[in-house]
Write a structure and sequence with these properties.
heterodimer; A: two-stranded antiparallel sheet; 7% strand; B: mainly alpha; two-stranded antiparallel sheet
């Protein structure tokens, strides 16, 4: 492997690991803020115990998201210096603004929340956790603005003198159609992630009939949030797919393993493809459904991989413009499948709540801890799909990934840091997951209020 | 705007990035120092909890100054960001690994009462603080000294180019100065025996730190090329006088003034480096024609304008709430405050 391949693997490892924690942090900040608000409004001690218990899990998770985030910001310059030179004028701004607006807000008010239980008035203390939750959402907005620009570059010009992209309309970046679809999709997915996490941990305890007051209430709140959020993820995902059909037709074609342009294209449920010859051996389809989903018309045209490849060769010159079709096809299907299961599971849980049978529904609580896997898998699959589907481009239509690396960094260096980060992250993952599991299983009694957190 | 006076956006952004590094070294400087002193000042776990909690509410917010400095460099001077980060590759990796373990250690050490668990995280806090405290000095000294940069603005050196005597002295200086800063900070945030120990340690550190600062600034003075930026001698001289006064201030138990002095010294040494750089951002040791400057490394006028508006609106807000945090947590951390099982 050369430096470029190693750099790509390093990005996969570091951002994949980062993204294990971030959606849960965004969602949990919101849920903890909701719980603390309930305590503030009602004075009911159960809500306070909920806030403390979930708050502790949130903090451990948040710490991992923060420290792995630093690496992301440095990595563009370290491994992708050609990329950084090309896009810095446009891409750097949302990153810097994210730091100024969001990271300061999150970290400062999180410190105030952790240590301020006694030193701030209850009202002010409640405000700090809301500001943390707000900060996480702002953070998501700006980092997704940066990513959306890579997916669908807007508001820039190519400077012929320097060969760099230069920003000329910041507002266009913030209203990028790709961002308007991607932002709700990602943030709602984060809320669903935290929801499924709370339902899962609550299920573990309810199955053992421990602290039922805390966990029935926690589960009920999380079920409402999960159902609404997961439905929102589905709708915004649909909007995103329609946009993708227009902006990145190759990504859509690969997701569907659609080799040739069709009118009234069917939605593939199961396919075995032959990448070399550009066709499928087996393809079980729902007729016309792809055209309906992608274009809102019964016989709408959906472009196929082979035709798009020919078109892109004419537009951009020779080379392959086809992402890894197998990964595209299955990551998309597994993501959607996981999302649908979450909707069904949350709907079933809410039905139990309505019937006042949640506490006794042992089958539900037995399944619930396994449900935590669903959103985490869907998040990673969704990102894999979004990023790998853009290949061979790192900035769609402007800069190819193989021209984006650091010319001055040799493969040996990248290998050292790749192994280094993998070891560091691997160690932390084991420790962190073990600690989270232990704290989650110990329940709210162990989360007894201590005046200082460290 | 293309005029080469001082009133232009690239100069403003160079100054702002300088301010971000100054803020970062001032704030995380004492965090690092506290981490380095952790094993030396503590007699039992309760001491260690006091020490960690002294920076508990603020260390994360302090670290964001680094993130924003990095982000601002990326946005305002992409060429500088790209050359610096790809060139200082392994050094940055070590800093990142150290900061990762350190950050996790603060959050996790208290989550399990087993002594072995805490001992591991305490080691992570020590090394995670000492290593960046040393390496930031090495890195910044190298930026000022000049590193091999070719005509394309690409790094053309090896890792060992970074390990020269001047830069190593810079590293030793930052390590000593930050540790001193942290020791003085602890005299303000703790009480009783721990506070006495912190003061003794700081007094003991003040002499070598002053010597290092003297050596580093003298060497910097002789290193400076004729065409180098603006360095009013009063800035480095005040930096030296400030750190030289620390021992006396601590002897007189003027802890607050001692903290002002260590802080001032850090601020002015960093300012000296940035003033000396201007208008270059990364001089090349292969010839001045390869220097990265605020002119050939900066973003477009439009981007700088957008960033300026955002920075002017939000920086005061950030400064206000960070200052307020220090006000909220102004009281000293006592042993009884952090005893486990203490009533809420």
């Amino acid at each position: 492997m050369d430096a470029l391949d190693l750099s790509r693997w390093q990005f996969v490892v570091t951002i994949g690991f980062h993204f294990l924690f971030v959606p849960l942090s965004i969602g949990l900040a919101f849920l903890v803020a909701v719980m603390q608000t309930a305590w503030y409004r009602t004075g009911n001690e159960t809500y306070l115990r909920m806030t403390r218990f979930w708050g502790r899990l949130f903090l451990v998770n948040f710490a991992l998201g923060v420290v792995t985030g630093i690496v992301q910001e440095f990595q563009f310059g370290m491994n992708w210096s050609s990329y950084s030179r090309f896009v810095g004028d446009v891409f750097g701004a949302p990153l810097a603004i994210e730091g100024l607006l969001a990271f300061f807000l999150e970290s400062t008010f999180l410190g105030l929340w952790i240590f301020g239980w006694k030193r701030l008035s209850p009202r002010l203390h409640l405000a700090t956790i809301w500001l943390v939750a707000f900060g996480t959402m702002i953070s998501a907005l700006f980092i997704l603005a940066a990513n959306s620009w890579m997916q669908h570059p807007v508001g820039f010009r190519l400077n012929p003198a320097t060969g760099r992209a230069e920003m000329h309309d910041f507002f266009a970046m913030l209203t990028n159609p790709a961002l308007l679809a991607q932002y709700p999709h990602t943030v709602l997915a984060a809320l669903a992630t935290a929801g499924m996490f709370v339902i899962g941990v609550s299920g573990y305890h309810l199955l053992r009939r421990r602290d039922e007051d805390v966990f029935v209430r926690s589960s009920a709140i999380a079920l409402v949030v999960t159902l609404i959020a997961a439905l929102g993820v589905a709708f915004s995902g649909h909007a995103q797919a329609q946009l993708m059909t227009k902006e990145q037709p190759m990504k859509m074609a690969a997701a569907e393993a659609l080799w040739d342009t069709e009118q009234g294209a069917g939605f593939s449920l199961f396919a075995v493809g032959d990448v070399e010859h550009g066709r499928n051996h087996i393809n079980i389809q729902l007729p016309h459904m792809l055209s309906v989903l992608a274009t809102n018309t019964w016989n709408g045209t959906v472009h196929g991989i082979n035709d798009l490849q020919a078109r892109f060769e004419r537009e951009y010159g020779p080379g392959s413009y086809v992402p890894v079709v197998g990964v595209m096809y299955w990551s998309f299907r597994l993501m959607v499948g996981a999302g649908l299961l979450m909707i069904a599971f949350a709907a079933a849980g809410l039905w139990l709540v309505r019937r006042r049978r949640l506490a006794d529904a042992r089958w539900f609580h037995r399944l619930a801890p396994w449900g935590i896997v669903l959103p985490i898998a869907a998040n990673l699959l969704g990102w894999t799909f979004a990023e790998m589907g853009r290949q061979p481009w790192v900035v769609y239509g402007l800069l190819k990934t193989d021209a984006a690396g650091s010319p001055s960094v040799g493969a040996g260096f990248v290998l050292v840091t790749l192994v280094g980060f993998t070891l560091v992250y691997g160690t932390l993952a084991v420790i962190d997951v073990a600690l989270l599991a232990r704290m989650a299983k110990a329940g709210p009694a162990a989360a007894s209020p201590s005046p200082e957190a460290y | 705007m293309e005029g080469h006076g001082y009133l232009n956006l690239p100069t403003l952004w160079f100054a702002l990035i300088g301010v971000l590094w100054i803020g970062y070294f001032f704030l995380e400087g004492f965090d690092f120092g506290v981490g380095v002193l952790l094993p030396f000042l503590s007699r039992d776990d309760l001491d260690r909890r006091v020490i960690v909690n002294a920076i508990g509410p603020v260390w994360d917010g302090n670290e964001v100054w680094l993130l924003v400095a990095g982000g601002a460099t990326f946005a305002a001077f992409p060429e500088w960001y790209a050359t610096l980060f790809s060139g200082f590759y392994l050094a940055l990796f070590l800093i990142l690994a150290a900061l990762i373990f350190r950050g996790v250690a603060f959050e996790l050490r208290g989550k399990d009462p087993r002594p072995s668990w805490r001992a591991w995280w305490d080691r992570a806090i020590f090394w995670g603080s000492a290593l960046p405290a040393l390496l930031w000095g090495v890195a910044l000294s190298n930026v000022l000294r000049g590193v091999p940069i070719d005509a394309n603005g690409e790094w053309a050196g090896s890792f060992f180019d970074l390990l020269n005597p001047y830069a190593l002295l810079g590293g030793v200086t930052s390590l000593l100065l930050f540790t001193l800063h942290g020791g003085v900070f602890l005299t303000l945030r703790t009480e009783g025996e721990l506070r006495d120990r912190a003061r003794r340690a700081a007094r003991w550190l003040a002499i070598p730190a002053t010597t290092a600062v003297l050596g580093f600034l003298t060497w910097t003075f002789f290193n400076a090329r004729e065409n180098d930026g603006v360095v009013p001698g009063v800035v480095p001289i005040t930096a030296l006088l400030a750190v030289a006064a620390v021992e006396w201030l601590l002897r007189e138990r003027l802890d607050g003034w001692a903290f002002v002095a260590t802080g001032l010294s850090i601020v002015l040494i960093t300012a000296t480096i940035f003033l000396n750089l201007y208008p270059r951002v990364m001089p090349s040791s292969l010839g001045a024609e390869n220097d990265l400057t605020i002119w050939n490394a900066s973003s477009s006028h439009y981007t700088l304008k957008v960033m300026t508006v955002v920075a002017l609106v939000f920086t005061p807000v950030v400064l206000a709430y960070q200052a307020w945090t220090y006000w909220v947590f102004r009281k000293r951390v006592r042993r009884e405050d952090v005893a486990e099982g203490a009533p809420a």
